[in-house]
Specification:
This protein has seven helices and ten strands. A hairpin with a 2-residue loop joins β1 and β2. 34% of the residues lie in helices and 29% in strands. It is α+β, with helices and mostly antiparallel strands. α2 runs antiparallel to α3. 17% of the residues are buried. The strands form two sheets. The protein has a five-stranded antiparallel sheet with strand order 1-2-3-4-5, with no helix packed on it. Strands 8-7-6-9-10 form a five-stranded mixed sheet.
Length: 179
């Protein structure tokens, strides 16, 4: 429900409320900590996607992970770099993916040897992650492709496919990153 024309509640529970304001970054409030509107905690929404040579972590290679939040971009060229980037982000950052719950986080966790780090990834995937595909499936009852969403956005939509990225050689890594 809208509180004012500029402020919309995205989620409200007994302890928390997420708000987006047109003129500033999304803010997080906790009613138990004595939140005041003058001191909101800013959240970064970190969008990310990984590209691999296949779907099975046991038989597939990691190609890269691309992270974007605001003007900041980061490309990880190894599983260790991607995992380090994720677990090293501030605790109030939220990760946004397309099918990240079923693929991206699972792939990274299965390629990570340290059980403590795998546990941290699982915690982030559960508590600090928004999977747009899973949310769409839960809300509408059927899955949708990323292309069906990207085709409605301004610009050229998706520039490649996951299958193309899987088959790409090391020389094509810049095309994979652009995708």
């Amino acid at each position: 429900p809208c509180k004012t024309p500029l402020q919309t509640t995205l989620f409200q529970g007994p302890r928390t409320a997420w708000r987006i304001n047109d003129n500033r970054a999304p803010t997080f409030r906790t009613t138990l900590s004595g939140y005041t509107p003058d001191h909101p905690t800013t959240i970064a929404f970190v969008y990310f996607d990984i590209e691999t040579s296949g779907l099975d972590p046991a038989t597939s290679d990691f190609k890269c992970a691309c992270f974007s939040h605001g003007e900041v971009k980061h490309v990880a060229r190894s599983v260790a770099d991607a995992v380090s980037y994720i677990v090293g982000r501030p605790a109030n950052d939220q990760f946004v993916t397309w099918n990240g719950a079923a693929f991206d986080f699972r792939f990274l966790a299965e390629k990570t040897e340290c059980h403590i780090t795998r546990g941290r990834l699982a915690h982030i995937a559960r508590d600090r992650h928004f999977d747009m595909m899973l949310d769409f499936l839960a809300h509408y009852g059927y899955p949708a492709s990323m292309e069906s969403f990207a085709s409605r956005l301004p610009g050229e939509g998706k520039t490649w496919s996951g299958a193309g990225a899987a088959e790409a050689s090391d020389e094509d890594i810049e095309k994979v990153i652009a995708y």
